[in-house]
Input
Amino acid sequence: MGGGPGSGSTEYWQAMADAAEREARRRRKLLLGAAVAAAAVLGAGALVLVLVLPGGGPDGPDRPSGPSVRAASSAPPPEPSAATPRLTLGPTASLGTTGGYDGQALLVTGNADGYAEAEGAALDTGADFTVSALVRVDTDSGPKAAVSQNAAAFSSFFLGRDDATDTVRNRWVFKVQTDAEVGRSVAAVSAADTVAGRWTLLTGVYSKQDATIALYVDGVLAQTSPAPRIIPSTGPLEFGRIRSSGMWVKPWNGAIADVRLWKRALTAEQVGALKDAKPGPPTPFERFLAPGASAAP
Output
């Protein structure tokens, strides 16, 4: 069998070992190149195939046992905490701490650039809902919106302070728009005046079955008003302003905190429990400007 290796053919076995090493090196380089190409195609945040080389590069002494999958270093950052969730701030708005409240608050000074806007519509205004906010107004004049949600040229609802008429002057209000026209709205208002500089819990409740809206001030029912319908809301949730006739109006002056939303009409007992921190209120499906994670719908 001439030409075959003999048991003492050192040159032959050395040549075979060198060839195997070259082939292993070639395979490692091909895999590494494929990983780089995959990262370029998939883009940031994708999962890419990489080699695990604990002891060095492709030509180092350590050998990979095989490819593994890990997240690319450019993966998106974790979601922000519920204290500042998905909010775009106006130029003169800020998030921070303020007197009388321990958590994050939206701080605004009553001009058109003092607002915050969420990513999209949070509530279906054609169904039951509840909106609640802890607010502090720093002036005792003019209508002001703490929380609203857009519907094209008008906001479907707003929760805040109103000076709408001679009989509704310096009052807390939960107002809904019934048609896309000026003056086509329904309001539930407080009997007592607003108090500048004091934190107040405002809660607005819409019941589709009862066709009513209700305003609660510090957990106590202020007024219930008939509301046969609310115009559909397609725009984002707003803090510190509302939309009216295609313009931004009613800028808030003060602070807004702990905004909670429910896709249901809370009972009077449940709203009262919000103020007194008693057990029992259902978990909100969304919460803004407050510590703790938002709950699922």
